[in-house]
Amino acid sequence: MDSTIREPKQKRAIEKKEKIIRAGFDLICENGYYNINTAEIAKRAGVSTGIVYQYFKDKHAILMEGLNRYGDTLFYPMIKVPEDPFDKKHFPRIIKSMIQEYIQNHKVSKTAHEEIMAMVHSDPEVAAYFYKREWETTAIVKEYLMKNQFSDLYLSEKIHISLGLIDNLCHEIIYHKHDEMDYDRMIEIVICAIEKIFQGSIKK
Amino acid sequence: MDSTIREPKQKRAIEKKEKIIRAGFDLICENGYYNINTAEIAKRAGVSTGIVYQYFKDKHAILMEGLNRYGDTLFYPMIKVPEDPFDKKHFPRIIKSMIQEYIQNHKVSKTAHEEIMAMVHSDPEVAAYFYKREWETTAIVKEYLMKNQFSDLYLSEKIHISLGLIDNLCHEIIYHKHDEMDYDRMIEIVICAIEKIFQGSIKK
Amino acid sequence: MDSTIREPKQKRAIEKKEKIIRAGFDLICENGYYNINTAEIAKRAGVSTGIVYQYFKDKHAILMEGLNRYGDTLFYPMIKVPEDPFDKKHFPRIIKSMIQEYIQNHKVSKTAHEEIMAMVHSDPEVAAYFYKREWETTAIVKEYLMKNQFSDLYLSEKIHISLGLIDNLCHEIIYHKHDEMDYDRMIEIVICAIEKIFQGSIKK
Amino acid sequence: MDSTIREPKQKRAIEKKEKIIRAGFDLICENGYYNINTAEIAKRAGVSTGIVYQYFKDKHAILMEGLNRYGDTLFYPMIKVPEDPFDKKHFPRIIKSMIQEYIQNHKVSKTAHEEIMAMVHSDPEVAAYFYKREWETTAIVKEYLMKNQFSDLYLSEKIHISLGLIDNLCHEIIYHKHDEMDYDRMIEIVICAIEKIFQGSIKK
DNA sequence: TATGAATGAGTCTTCATTCAT
DNA sequence: AATGAATGAAGACTCATTCAT
């Protein structure tokens, strides 16, 4: 069985595989894994249903490859760490702009995020992908902060907690879960909390 | 059609309906909504498949009733707010014990939480349930804090953020997502952050 | 099995049976035999589902009893043969008024007629009922005409054909099957045809 | 969803679709729409149940395609209008032969006719099909008669009434509804009536 | 008599996957 | 390498009928 999965070598074949991944991932993001079927994937990719199973073990494999290809740009785009040296005074501003970018990015693909997050909770492989990405993101931020003289002490933990804070906040804002909330003030509170978290880490 | 949904009047029938809800909810928690079928629910409940559809509109209705019956004890058990008056000095201790209880509770039903959280992201009705519960929890905590002389200013926002912080933390610890993390220290950081968040709210 | 069907003796029980027949027949007429179920019948009759099967062998038996009770008034109401002696000159007028009454009657229960006619074609028992009724109707008309000096020769055949003609015409008019048709003229043609059919039968 | 209906391109596939239509239509004709199921259709067609739903939206679609394919030959075969010019003297003979052909044709598929007629009364789509066919038949006959110098005046109405007359007659004869009837004489009466109906239309 | 709870076989339909070409 | 036809098990839901009380 497994041996029938072909890794395409020819350019056209590679493109075809690519198209399937793109189509599958898009469809999953738009409608959810359980609400689409392989025939639809094949159709959107412009290939036959048969060929799908020559490149992929099963439907699930398409999701995973899609996640690996496109998950990054979809879920972790904010981590375009600023090039220029970090100035402590700008800490709030930097975080605020991160939040804004994060929100902006998620707004364009609300359903995508929700559908994929659903999988995170029910599909171990998808979960593993996200755990890894979370960790990588933490590492990138850590490296950046250390370049800017942040103390190493529990930096990963602090970053991880802070990213979670931002994530929660953005989710709340995007899905507007509770309209009794004052979102502007929430942003301030979160920024402030993050500042406090890193207070001891900033070397003078 | 809709009128065929019966609200059982006889005692034994009520128990039977209860059993279906319990069986359905358990099964969903153990295996996930999409991995179980109505026949299994009926079997576990010790009833015929037919009876299921006399008490419930469809499979989904079983989930929702289960959530309404058992969701609270499963997801919001920590909110047994302490009876005795709040002492500022005990703030960290209170939060810590909340976290511990939270973790304890979730550990016994790991999959349950994950399967249900998966639904939160893909099922609007389930999402609505959680949004409501989140808000109610916030309200309970708010009332408690205000009884203990916390200032009203953005209290909801602060509570909500803090609960999110705790939630993230516990999730991280339970699922042990990144074993490079120092969980004890994370707990400390979170507690500290929460303290800071409420700093301005505590009246002297 | 059969022995369990009870013929109610008590007044209240008889009323109950009556209610079931009425409810069942109405429901069938409104929605069609295959689109209703016994639970609905019981509900509309205000009885329990169980009792239905103490008075009737099965769902079909309800239809048949309903047909026997109410079929006549629904399908053969026009055969209120005029009391006063027949005057040859009034032949067209009599037929015309028959047609009008027929149409009037059918208009109020379009679906009823269609649903029952559907059964006539697929259910032998229902078909038998209608054949019998057709024949009875023919007989009534025959008797009437013979009282009025119509010759006996092939009278049944002529009546039967004429009634069919009227039936077709009314159906066409009620369901407005082809709006290119001139219905007033059709009525005239039919009346005229019937006159011709009976021409030889009228004794001078 | 809808897009999953495939129009087969390969020769063998087309044949298979054809087989399903044939099997479905036959089965419906033999046993009635409500008394057969898709599994039976698939079995008789020698295919799997799955393929049925790749060619047809649902069970009902099979009926409709069957009707479109085979309805004509089954219900309107008599309308093989004679090629040779019409001679007024032969009017009775022509009608008589039409009747005989009609009866002959219907005798071979008694149940088919009944089952389909049942649908006409309960299924709007089937009804629409028959209304259309009725009209077309009328048009064909009209054209034929006009070629033979029949006057246009209310010709459609007359034809329609006459066809109804024939239809009733044949139905009576085939199903032998009332064995007290003298069928030979009925035929004569009908022919005579039709002659009378067209009397004014025949130009001298 | 009467209730309404309970049964379970049966129905349509879907879809991941395989196969013949 | 590719097609798209074909499979068939599985799933949600219905309903005439029976049963326990």
Q: In words, what does this structure look like?
A:
- Chain A has helices at residues 11-31, 38-45, 49-55, 59-75, 91-107, 110-122, 124-147, 155-175, 183-198.
- Chain A has 9 helices and no strands.
- Chain A has 2 domains: 11-69, Arc Repressor Mutant, subunit A, CATH 1.10.10.60; 76-197, Tetracycline Repressor, domain 2 (Orthogonal Bundle).
- Chain A is mainly alpha-helical.
- The mean pLDDT of chain A is 89.
- The A-B interface holds A 32, 34, 114-115, 117-122, 127, 131, 134-135, 138, 154, 156-158, 160-161, 164-165, 167-169, 172, 177-178, 180-182, 185-186, 189-190, 192-193, 196-197 and B 32, 34, 114-115, 117-122, 131, 134-135, 138, 154, 156-158, 160-161, 164-165, 167-169, 172, 175, 177-178, 180-182, 185-186, 189-190, 192-193, 196-197.
- Chain B binds a DNA duplex (21 and 21 nucleotides) through helix 1 and helix 3.
Q: Give the oligomer, counting copies of the same chain as homo and different chains as hetero.
A: homotetramer
Greatest contact pair?
A: A-B, 40 and 40 residues
Domain tally of chain A: 2
Low-confidence stretches of chain A: none
Beta strand % of chain A: under 5%
* Helix-residue proportion of chain A: over 70%
**Helix segment tally of chain A:** 9
State the CATH topology of the largest domain in chain A.
Tetracycline Repressor, domain 2
Measured between the Cα atoms of the first and last residue of chain A, the distance is: 61 Å
Radius of gyration of chain A: 20 Å
Structural class of chain A: mainly alpha
